[in-house]
Protein: Phosphoserine aminotransferase
Amino acid sequence: MSDTATVYNFSAGPAMLPQAVMRQAQKEFCNWHDTGLSVLDFSHRGADFTAIAEQAEKDLRDLLAIPEDYSVLFCPGGASLQFSAIAMNFLRGKALYLNSGVWGDKATQEAKNFGDVIAFDLLSKQDGKTAIRSQQDWPDCSDDYDYIHFTPNETIGGVEFADLPKAGQGRWIADMSSCILSQPINVKDYALIYAGAQKNIGPAGLTIVIVRNDWLQREPVAPVPSLLSYAVMAQNQSMYNTPPTYAWYLAGLVFQWIKAEGGVAQMARRAEQRSQALYQFIDNNDFYRNPIAKKNRSRMNIPFILKDESLNSLFLQQAEAAGLRYLKGHRSVGGMRASLYNAMPMQGVEALIDFMSAFAAQNR
Amino acid sequence: MSDTATVYNFSAGPAMLPQAVMRQAQKEFCNWHDTGLSVLDFSHRGADFTAIAEQAEKDLRDLLAIPEDYSVLFCPGGASLQFSAIAMNFLRGKALYLNSGVWGDKATQEAKNFGDVIAFDLLSKQDGKTAIRSQQDWPDCSDDYDYIHFTPNETIGGVEFADLPKAGQGRWIADMSSCILSQPINVKDYALIYAGAQKNIGPAGLTIVIVRNDWLQREPVAPVPSLLSYAVMAQNQSMYNTPPTYAWYLAGLVFQWIKAEGGVAQMARRAEQRSQALYQFIDNNDFYRNPIAKKNRSRMNIPFILKDESLNSLFLQQAEAAGLRYLKGHRSVGGMRASLYNAMPMQGVEALIDFMSAFAAQNR
Structure:
């Protein structure tokens, strides 16, 4: 985002924030609402910050229709810290991890330090494309797992799926880091939802946790660091110690922006529009290729591979020069990746498509 | 800090940042160094952020003369998360906690979840004032403790001390949250130093850890969450996952500001000047009282009690109206507290003294 040239940031995260949010935050950076103080300066226990914090929670509850019997926590750090917290709080017998990529695998590895984990790879190849296996091939979700963890959108692989077996309902734990607030969800299906802020919420260093209150009563099998205890965090309204106040404030501005723009239903329409435009272009141009089966393509993270991979550096160099930033794919996948989160305007996607079209024409 | 009226923030943390840092951060908020992107948008693995991150570490190393065989980590969350991390990483047999207030007690409580802790209360009453006990009354620091933890400056009580027994050298672990960068230190005395950012470093949500590398080889007795493992954090240059990038950047700006102002020796002179002015005023005015023995008075956090405590609300109300913010003392101590961190200009202290003087004259 820029005041001068138009630059679009396709980073998988930290990602761009909405331009309107950035302008407001810049304007009130040194003097919030004529207090003469910056939000950065506010005591987290003072009236000014308390109002900001409560409004942010209220707006998030509105946006996702979070029921009363769920707590909303603003936790320090990223989602990876929650990988440990989830297992330390809730893993007593065994847990099922349904994995569809790198982040599910990482969550599994972390959980294995703290108990018995059954990991199942949801990915298969269908007609040369990566796809989520049919549910009849999944493990039986009615088994007595403490919880069932999955990653509805895999940021690195660009794999997304939504359908879940009835059997696990109420025991799902979902890492929604890269898809939260991009569509309506039914919170009641989940025991816990978590999401690192740096994609659709705000700056890095904050993770939102939505947890059903009855789960806060579960006794962990071993001591849990207070800051990783959901019970402690909930009892203290996420202020057991000083929370990441500025990140919390920016998240609140983003929630207000989403509400003003029309809510998560509107975010879903835009995500559909952005991603379909790019997938359609890729599918109709044999210079590029997306490796994911259509039904499981991510609306947020779109990996694509150049037919001639020796052109990768040239592509990236010219894209950067054209103001299309951070398109390099993750090292584990290669190629390119365009992340199209809520803050990405349609013009950014159009600029990318124009560039890709011209690059293909020039380098065939 | 304000563009318009002069407001001084005496909060114990989050605290005010230097005005020059705030102005620079505001100016480049949406467009850092003509990149067309905000630092908030930067991928933590991109060249722009890597340069920011490395410079911040280099500047901190310069400021505190951190030897080569120590790692500098930029950890998510606050110091309370390190209370757990320290015990989980290093507590195998027993550890000694030398406590001088609320934060040392909290560190002790957290550590007790993970192993054997000997806690010793350093505080005593001397002539009606709170003081640190003479070292001859301390436990023998040459005992085979895994480490010896202490809090050189207690933010809530306003107690500070610096002298340590030779016997514990190299095994000290210090929570320097509220005094780091306020004076030169000899890093070699310590196995680990940690400090939450929101006082002398930057915004809440970041904690600096300085740890001697040989301690990274110590095998924990039980699994440690990856984000709390100093070995994992060091191996990954604090980027095992997405770090709190914006907080890291602001910390870097503060480090540059301290260097430009003359380094930690200059910060120490200013801290002395600020705190001596306020203590002198308090000692010479029987309307106010500081409960700490002179030798252990904090240069950073100055609690003071009104002779007539029924005037507390009036004092706070008039102080706020005069732009002197967040002077209310911690609930466990009562009265008032003025926190005078590095970013507090001498004019702020003078304004406070003028106000206190007038208030005393009017309310005798």
